[in-house]
């Protein structure tokens, strides 16, 4: 019988080493032997065996300690670990399982039991390897998809306006999406949307909206009128029982000649307009109009609002992931606190978006954000 599997035996008893080696080699397995726990760990790291049979009671490192070290090594995560023991109480088995052991063989060793447990262990090892391979393939494909999504986002703009952004999906793929582009030489369209949920199912509707608006594929639509755009999107992206995805959106059109901004929103957080150079009395205006999220209900009306853009003004458009953050003390950061941070940054660091993001990251109690985070910053002068 020929086998590609390699088995490591860790036991301080020479008689047990010889017995196990003979039994396993008869079955066609390649067998390595270590006489103590430290040597066993070194050989496991060096050769990555498919299966380890390790004695529980040994001088130096015992079987539980060896198991714990093996199971914490990412390279050995799929190695099947069998503890060889004369202990058979439930409490002892629980200790072994808590240490990470996958199975047990009781002394004295019975050949048929050994063969059956080894075969079962190797099947599970192979299954784990196959699953790990599939996971790596899926992660690579998701990484490619995430790179594609990023390639669709607009480049930062430096003239005649300065537009920059920060985008951090909570997973490789997220439900936030945004765009800005000139409708003609004087009118700039800008929007940010946030699809309910996370991951691939949230990304697909977002990209659909981006492609639809960027290509002007909605025939007869006045893209200069934000309320009309939201109405058309709501008609196009209605929820169904098979597709429960809806999204919030803020959409604006800026006339750079008249310095006028017309905007409408659909269940989205307000955009924040900061004006003036005085740190004592900065002008703060929140820009939001009434309207349900797109796709929730078919008969929804959206309305426009206007504002004049003063000199030295900055506009921030963002998703709720920018402020719905669990802080280190367990409390949730608020929209008002986020707006105050934007005001402070305007005068402390000239509103540098990198610094704003660093401040948000420092507040977050988790290693990653729980929701997608997107911020667009428009400096009009």
CATH topology of the largest domain: Phosphatase 2c, domain 1
Poorly predicted sequence stretches spanning 5 or more consecutive residues: none
Question: What class would the helix/strand composition place it in?
Answer: alpha/beta
Spatial extent as radius of gyration = 30 Å
**Could you say what the CATH architecture of the largest domain is?**
4-Layer Sandwich
Shape: elongated
Strand content: 15-25%
Number of strands: 15
For the largest beta-sheet, the strand count, sense and barrel status come to:
5 strands, parallel
Continuous helix count: 9
Strand order of the largest sheet: 2-1-3-4-5
Helix share bin? 25-40%
CATH superfamily of the largest domain: PPM-type phosphatase domain
Arithmetic mean of pLDDT: 90
Would you state the CATH class of the largest domain? Alpha Beta
Distance between the termini: 78 Å
Number of domains: 2
The sequence of SSEs as H and E is: EHEHEHEHEHEEEHHEEEEEEHHE
